[in-house]
Amino acid sequence: MSDLPGRRPPPLPDKSPTLRDQIDNLAHLGRLVAQIWRTSRFLTAASIGLRIIAALQPVAVLYAAKLIVDEVVRLSAVTPPGPGILDWFEAGLLNSVIGFLLLELALVLANDLISRATGLVDSILSELHSNQVSVELMQHAARLDLQHFESAEYQDRLERARRQAAGRNALLSQIFGQAQDIITVMTLAAGLFIYAPWLILLLPLSFIPSVWGESRFNSLAYMLSRWRTPERRELEYLRHIGASAETAKEVKLFGLGDYLVTRFKGLAHQIFLENRRVAILRAGWGAAFAAIASLAYYAAYAFIVWRTITGVFSLGDLAFLSGSFLRLNGLFQKILLGFTQIAGQSMYLDDLFSFFEIEPTVLPPPAPAAFPVPIRSGIVFDNVGFKYPETDHWVVRNLSFTLPAGETLALVGENGAGKTTIVKLLTRLYDPSEGRITIDGVDLRQMAPADIHAHVGVIFQDFIRYSFSARDNIGVGRIEAREDQDRIDTAAEQSLAKGVIARLPKGYDQQLGRLFKQGRDLSGGEWQKVAIARAYMRDAELIILDEPTAALDAKAEAEVFARFKGLAIGKTAVIISHRFSTVRMADRILVLDNGAILEAGTHEQLVALKGRYAELFELQAAGYR
Ligand SMILES: Nc1ncnc2c1ncn2[C@@H]1O[C@H](COP(=O)(O)OP(=O)(O)OP(=O)(O)O)[C@@H](O)[C@H]1O
């Protein structure tokens, strides 16, 4: 499923998962229980132990009640020893009945304690489990490729998995509760079987219709929710742009508030109508099936009453059997519905676990080559071609050029020419679809992506504005050195961020961004200086600045690049900029057009060539005259 334009969902999905699919989904329960066990062995064991004790309680209470009734019936036939209760006591006639009453009281009190303790253990366990799932999700997402994050299908899967991380906690209690109910049913059924074996046959009559109905509606609800993931993501997105700090300026000035609300309402209403239809169907059929269950119960009850009247059963037996049957009937339904609900929930688990099955494709080779330090000869693009996954369009094709070690290369070209894509290929965020990229003769595919990233300092045009302190905003450039104040100082100095930080009330400790209280927002250019410092935190062999200076004023950009040139001596560097004042400083310039090289050379050579570069340069220079 993907976000295809013009996609029209059917009113209700008609094909439910097959029985086989449902059984396969049940296998996910094993993974879930293993995950819960990993979360806390002690709490999992405690929850199971408490439930086993609780499971035996109903039959014990019913049996105590039977003993009380039978004793009362016996005592009512005895000649009273005297007029007062004391006479009964003294005669020792009340000993048994008092013992039975105390037994029942103790059982009821114990049950209350146990169920509270189970609730407590489950709620703690479920919070721990939900944290555990979130951590595992984040860890797994961090392993995946950039291509996954740039695909709508992946975003849908991640969104579904994320919902499951928080939403499946009830399942934990449900699975354990189910096991508890099964034990209770077995003990009650054993009692019932001893008195009236064929009564048990009446039970399935009452629950089979409900089970069928539940399983059908569970599937429907799941299919709807799955089908609607893109719309739900759109709702989330609309909610975000309608009310967030980054978007407030533009939304206000363009007067988009009402438009966003209307769009949100329309989409939310469609989803509401579908959900309401399923809810109404479910409630209607549920009521009908519950009536069938009650009929079965009363048929059995009438039979037990008749047997008691005819003297086959005692009054105590009547109390025990009708109590057992009532509970069994309820429990049987609960268990079977529980199974279908668990099966229904396990469909959602598929959303969670199938996310964990997505594997990265840009992988280190079995015996990776080390990134050359220093780079001696240079970087070579050898007939490189690249298409983004699931697209047919060659973004770059037949691209061959050499970037000699220690030189600065500038990439110039119109929007969409493929400049950022070249950076993604150079940093092995993607592998080329054809051709190869080598550093000192070694194919990038022979190196581990993490090793490449450790030796490259890149700042993209859409760098992150972290809502962290100024220090951490620079420190994240080299996370292991985030406490190294000298290094951070030097990086800030080199990127001109030092001046920005000096003006902050709390200096390096100043919280940046508007997300948190006491946060200080920076101007676009100030943010860029902070971001560029991140690239300087690394001992990078290769420095890449992908248009991160667009918001800098002309003076600051000239200064940033003068420093960049100074620092890049001996380092290989790539810069992407639309400003020719910056580009001209590069040792070599590539002019790209539609993913191919149109012109290449130094600034002077390209101006002399009087081609596209000279034309664009003139155009920009004329703007300043
Ligand atoms: N993740 C993606 N999936 C599919 N196509 C993409 C993806 N990213 C970029 N493209 C397409 O690849 C082409 C080149 O994009 P790229 O970002 O490399 O251009 P650019 O030269 O850096 O442009 P700009 O100057 O606007 O930053 C564009 O046509 C763009 O639509």
Descriptive notes:
There is one protein chain. With 625 residues, this protein is of the alpha/beta class. It has helices at residues 19-39, 41-76, 85-90, 95-143, 146-149, 152-167, 169-195, 199-227, 229-242, 245-253, 257-309, 315-356, 419-426, 449-455, 470-475, 485-495, 497-502, 524-536, 554-567, 580-583, 603-609, 612-624, and strands at residues 378-387, 394-404, 408-413, 434-439, 442-443, 456-459, 542-546, 572-576, 588-593, 596-601. Strand 9 (588-593) and strand 10 (596-601) form a beta hairpin. It is elongated, with a radius of gyration of 36 Å. Residues 150, 388, 391, 395, 413, 415-421 line the site of adenosine-5'-triphosphate. Adenosine-5'-triphosphate (ATP) binds at residues 150, 388, 391, 395, 413, 415-421.
Instruction: Give the class from helix and strand content and strand pairing.
Output: alpha/beta
CATH-defined architecture of the largest domain: Up-down Bundle
**Uncertain stretches of 5 or more adjacent residues:** 1-14
Number of strands: 10
Helix proportion: 55-70%
* Distance between the first and last residues' Cα: 54 Å
Give the overall average pLDDT.
Answer: 84
Biggest sheet, open or closed, and with what strands and sense?
Answer: 6 strands, mixed
> What characteristic shape results from the CA principal axes?
elongated
- Whole-number count of domains: 2
Give the CATH H-level superfamily of the largest domain: ABC transporter type 1, transmembrane domain
CATH topology of the largest domain: ABC transporter transmembrane region fold
Rg, nearest Å: 36 Å
Number of helices: 22
Residue share in β-strands:
5-15%
* Major β-sheet strand ordering: 6-7-8-3-9-10
CATH class of the largest domain: Mainly Alpha
Small-molecule binders here are:
adenosine-5'-triphosphate
InterPro entries: AAA+_ATPase, ABC1_TM_dom, ABC1_TM_sf, ABC_transporter-like_ATP-bd, ABC_transporter-like_CS, P-loop_NTPase, Type_1_exporter
Protein name: ABC transporter ATP-binding protein/permease
Keywords: ATP-binding, Membrane, Nucleotide-binding, Transmembrane, Transmembrane helix
Family: Belongs to the ABC transporter superfamily.
